[in-house]
Amino acid sequence: MANRKAKSTIREFPLIQRLARRFAREAPGLVQGIGDDAAVVEPASRIWWHVTTDLLAEGIHFDFNSASPRSVGYRAAMANLSDLAAMGATPRYMVVSVAIPKTLKSSHIVGIYSGMMKACRRDRVALIGGDTSASKAGLFLNITLLGTTPTRKALFRHGAQVGDLIYVTGTLGDSLAGLRLLMPTHKTYRSSKSRIVLSRSHQRFLIDRHFHPTARVAEGLWLNRERLATSAIDLSDGLSGDLRHLCESSRVGAEIEPEKLPISAACRAYGKAAGSSPVQLALTGGEDYELLFTAAPGSRAKIERQAHARGYRVTCIGTIRSKRFGIRMSSGGNSRRLPITSYEHFH
Questions:
Q1: How far apart are CA 159 and CA 250, in angstroms?
Q2: Residue-wise pLDDT tens digits, 91-144
Q3: Which of 4, 89, 245, 339 would bridge with 84, disulfide CB 3.0–4.6 Å?
Q4: What letter does residue 174 receive in the DSSP assignment?
């Protein structure tokens, strides 16, 4: 990393030209991409456009002392892809704005864009524009993604009904465990044990899940096309908080069975080694970017059969209840209110 007092070696227009040459490409419906005052897109008929955006700030969302530029870009793109996955949308186009401090070189910015485009490669997302600026307070990265669904065919947070089953994809808590491994002395993540002994394979798995999460775009498209989900949200802030968002939008309550939460062997091993509850990691940990969705009880057999055939991991973790019931955890005949332990800005 360059010395903080050094003068920036980055030149705006050569950097933009370099990024355009390397990352811009043709895409269906794209009339004009990078290189004009605005991008031009010719939409197909009978579709809905979905637009999502995320702002990432150095020191808040990432730290270059532990994360590479490529991993920062990768995670940033995945966060936006996950939003579209929760809508059951097909990702199409990406617009990126970046404010760059003089401590970074153009190679760092290219690394960030390389990470973003690697994350977007599977879904063939086209980079169509953005902006660059200088920054006096660290790097700021803003990504806007556009996706599509057929008209009146999308997943929302507000469709859950009393009696619906609650599902999650993948495993929960891995990203938070990985972050704690990367920042063992941080006051927020300090372990109750002075030394954490964990196998290298488990360490690699958890750290990779933190730096390289997978947005469940394919799962979202499946749930939407097959009309299997009644509501959906992505787990970016943590199960306890994101479940609450879904319940508030649907005006319902929920009952979660903690013993059913899908927790990886690596996360369980970390919990044991660090003296932390794996269930608490699963409830608290954000940035797993899994999907939380609800479905009618009659769809259970179809969901489980099709998920198995497609290689998707989905787990039923509870049931939608009345709003008066609240949001609770039940185990062994005991029930208690589910506390909000998810991440929240400004708190």
A1: 6
A2: 999 999 999 999 999 999 999 999 999 999 999 999 988 999 999 989 999 999
A3: 89
A4: H
Backbone angles phi, psi at 141, to 5 degrees: -130, 125
Structure tokens at 264: 């990886």
- Residue 260: which residues within 8 A CB-CB, separation 6 or more? 315, 316, 317, 318
Q: Which residues of 196-235 are buried (b: 16+ CB within 10 A; e: fewer)?
A: bebeeebbebbbebbbbbbbbbbbbbbbbeeebbbbbbbb
CA distance 309 to 307: 5
Burial 264-273 (b: 16+ CB within 10 A, else e): bebbbbbbeb
Residue 202 has pLDDT above 60, yes or no: yes
Q: Residue 209: which H helix or E strand, with range?
A: helix 200-211
Q: How is residue 66 written in tokens?
A: 């532990």
Q: What is the pLDDT of residues 3-31, one digit of tens each?
A: 445 566 666 657 766 766 777 666 677 77
Domains of the chain: 12-150 (3.30.1330.10), 157-337 (3.90.650.10)
Residue identified by tokens 């509850």 is: 277
List beta partners, residue 256. Answer: 318, 329
